Amino acid sequence: MKQEKCGKFYFCYKHFNRKKTILLSYFLILIFLVSCSGPQKAAPAEKDLIVVGFSQVGSESDWRNANTVSMQEAFSVENGYRLIFDDAQQKQEKQITAIRNFINQGVDYIVLAPITMEGWDTVLTEAKAAGIPVIIVDRMVDTDDPDLFTCWVGSDTRREGDLAVKWMEENLTAPLNIVHLQGNIGSSAQAGRTEGLEAGLQNNPEWKLVFQAPGDFVQAKGQELMEEVLASGIDFNVIYAENDNMAYGVIAALKAHDVVPGKDVTIISFDAAHDALKLVLSGELNLDVECNPLHGPRVRSIIEQLERGETPEKFTYVDEVYFDSSNLTEDIIASRGY
Ligand code: AHR
Questions:
Q1: Can you name the residues that pair with 271 across neighbouring β-strands?
Q2: Long-range contacts of 325-331, Cβ-Cβ distance < 8 Å, separation of 24 or more
Q3: Cα of 226 to ligand 1 centre, how many Å?
């Protein structure tokens, strides 16, 4: 039997074969990994969790889905929260019911992404009477009493509309015949972007609105409306779609009619979601104005301030930019969280 001396130890190659060497290596690696990982953070106990009820509009768009994920990740158990998530499927009455359920459950905070601006006074008064702070996120509410909610964080959608109009003034040659696909009527996202375009129409006499209809921020409706425009024979050279999903629908309809999107007609959109930015790079979408959906960490930071007894800003607007072929790269797309 071959033996080899190593200090005062002898290794026997017959018994200490290859299989055992591999097992021993795995064992040593495991010990190494466990010793490197340090003490494990214990999940907070259920009784210590901060309970947040979140009433979400629905799942009408890529933006909305990214927003839901952002909220779910921010309000995880590991972060010390229990999130009660309610999808209102685009119905205000479902949002009102959800808020009443949150009040009955005695949540610590209510977060509301309101489908429309109007119609919240009664239920927000109920939340206030129950002593539950309400944080409004994404879209704005229009209440008689601003003290009915604690604070708001979201996008300046009028500014988004103004950015789009400024880009049109600088990059397009009049006359413009504009097809306008709106988001759901009465939401601040629709109102701001529509007001921006209306101001642009007033200031530019050679711009004409040739078609306007709500597509509710939904891709299928955007496609349907574009089919309607194409079938009607209306003359147009610009499409102003108030979100990316409606723009996807527009592009599909145009292609089906052999109209080249981004070349035969200019397409303007809002959100700057990942797939839409790819279309800006490929030239099918000409302008995408950002609307940032990653509100989870922002709302969490507001709740942390409230937990510390601080007073958060009443209104926080997120900084947003726009993308066209002059400033967008693959690296920018890859670096964005949605
Ligand atoms: O309120 C934000 C808007 O709602 C986004 O532009 C749209 O995509 C979403 O559904």
A1: 290
A2: 325/280, 325/281, 325/283, 325/286, 328/277, 328/280, 328/281, 329/281, 330/281
A3: 19
For 11, residues 6+ apart whose C-beta sits below 8 A from its C-beta are: 3, 4
C-beta of 62 in contact with ligand 1 (< 6 A): no
Residue type, 30: L
Every domain of the chain with CATH number 3.40.50.2300 lies at 46-155+293-307, 157-291+323-335
Query: Is 288 close to ligand 1, i.e. is its CB under 6 Å away?
Result: no
Q: Let me know: does 99 contact 112? Beta carbons within 8 Å.
A: yes
Architecture of the CATH domain 157-291+323-335: 3-Layer(aba) Sandwich (3.40)
Q: What is the pTM (predicted TM-score) of this model?
A: 0.88
Give me the residues paired with residue 318 across strands.
Answer: none
First vs last C-alpha separation in the chain? 65
- What top-level class would CATH report for the domain 46-155+293-307? alpha beta
Torsions phi, psi for 163 (to 5 deg):
-60, -45
pLDDT in tens, 232-275: 999 999 999 999 999 999 999 999 999 999 999 999 999 999 99
Top-confidence residue, 309 or 14: 309
Ligand 1 center to 292 CA (angstroms) = 9
Q: 40 pLDDT exceeds 70?
A: no
248 Cβ inside 6 Å of ligand 1: no
Helix, strand, or coil here: 76? Answer: coil
- Rg of the chain over CA atoms, in angstroms? 27
Question: How far is it, in rounded angstroms, from Cα 204 to Cα 200?
Answer: 6
273-283: pLDDT as tens digits: 999 999 999 99
Tokens standing for residue 186: 């009465």
Q: Which helix H or strand E contains 37, and what residues bound it?
A: helix 18-37
Q: Where are the alpha helices (DSSP H) in 142-215?
A: 157-171, 188-203
Name which of 300, 293, 338 is nearest 75 in CA terms.
300
